[in-house]
Amino acid sequence: MIYLLDTNILVRLANPQSPQEPLARKSIRYLLEEGHTLVTGSQVIQEFFTVATRPLSARGGLGMSVPKVLEHISDFEEAVSLLSEVPLHNIWLRLVSKYEISGVAAHDARLAAFMIAHQISHILTFNDKDFSRYAPEGIIAVTPQSVFSN
To answer: Region 84-96: what's the mean pLDDT?
Structure first.
C-alpha cells in the first residue's frame, strides 16, 4: 500500500516537543516494517516549510530557521519518495465543485487531487475528518493511532 504523508505528520516529526511526535514516528516505522511505501509531494513540503518557519506565537508555527527547515526537508526526502507534480487543475476543480469546498479546505482538496492523479488511496494524517469527504473518491484517511488497530 502507498501512503501519502500529510503535512501535520511532518510537522510532528520535526517537533520533538509535540506530544504526538512519538506516535507519528512509531506509526511511520510500523508502516515501513509492514512493507508499505511512504510518499510525499511538493505541496506537503511547501506547507511544512510555511509552518516550520512561522513564528512560535503564530498558528502552530515552529519558529525554525530556514537552514534548519531545509535540513528537515532533506531528511524527509531521503526517507520517503517525493512524487512529481502532475496536472491537477481539472481534478481539483471537480472536487471543490462536487464537495462545495471553500477557504483553507481547498489545500486538502488539492492533496486529494494529487492522490487521485497518482492513484494513492491512503493518507496518513492527524486530521482524518478533513479527508473523510473524499471517501467516495477512494481516499482513505488513516490516523497514526488507527495504524495499530488495523
So the answer is: 94
